[in-house]
């Protein structure tokens, strides 16, 4: 399930948008991330080729099983890390920014250890 930070961010964004919108389109992703539609188009092509998303003929984007697994992993990391940082006194904005960086580089083992520690 190897992917890069950029792909992980797109997949996480698709997951988050799918929770609040009836359908997700490239324009929704562009608006959410503040990127040009052309950049989103290239990214969606790459994600489609990696079989992480499917795009309907109407342009609706859905996560495949592998795409959803990656997105949910990154989202869980983000939520846990940002929440933990906030609890220990880091301002929310900084905690969110730092969580966005950490969520992509932390090993599975370290994340699981932190998760177990926090949940005790």
Strand coverage percent: 5-15%
| DSSP strand count | 2
Mean pLDDT: 94
Q: What are the segments in which pLDDT stays under 50 over at least 5 consecutive residues?
A: none
Instruction: Choose one word for the global shape.
Output: elongated
Question: CA-to-CA gap between the ends?
Answer: 29 Å
Give the helix level as a range of percent: over 70%
Number of helices: 6
Structural class: mainly alpha
Q: List the strand order in the largest sheet.
A: 1-2
The biggest beta sheet reads: 2 strands, antiparallel
Radius of gyration (Å): 15 Å
Could you give the order of the helices and strands?
HHHEEHHH
Give the helix/strand layout:
Blueprint: H1 5-20, H2 26-33, H3 37-49, E1 53-55, E2 61-63, H4 65-87, H5 92-105, H6 108-118
Helix pairs in contact: 1-2, 1-4, 2-3, 4-5
Overview of the structural elements:
The protein has 120 residues and is mainly alpha-helical. It contains six helices and two strands, in the order αααββααα. The protein has helices at residues 5-20, 26-33, 37-49, 65-87, 92-105, 108-118, and strands spanning 53-55, 61-63. Strands 1-2 form a two-stranded antiparallel sheet. A hairpin with a 5-residue loop joins strand 1 (53-55) and strand 2 (61-63). The longest helix has 23 residues, at 65-87. The mean pLDDT is 94.
């Amino acid at each position: 399930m190897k992917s890069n930070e950029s792909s992980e961010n797109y997949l996480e964004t698709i997951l988050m948008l799918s929770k609040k919108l009836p359908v997700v389109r490239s324009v929704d992703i562009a608006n959410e991330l503040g990127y040009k539609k052309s950049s989103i188009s290239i990214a969606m092509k790459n994600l489609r080729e990696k079989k992480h998303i499917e795009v309907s003929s109407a342009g609706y984007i859905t996560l495949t099983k592998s795409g959803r697994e990656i997105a949910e992993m990154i989202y869980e990391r983000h939520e846990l890390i940002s929440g933990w940082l906030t609890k220990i006194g880091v301002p929310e904005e900084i905690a969110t920014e730092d969580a966005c960086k950490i969520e992509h580089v932390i090993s599975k083992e370290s994340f699981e250890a932190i998760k177990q520690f926090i949940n005790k």
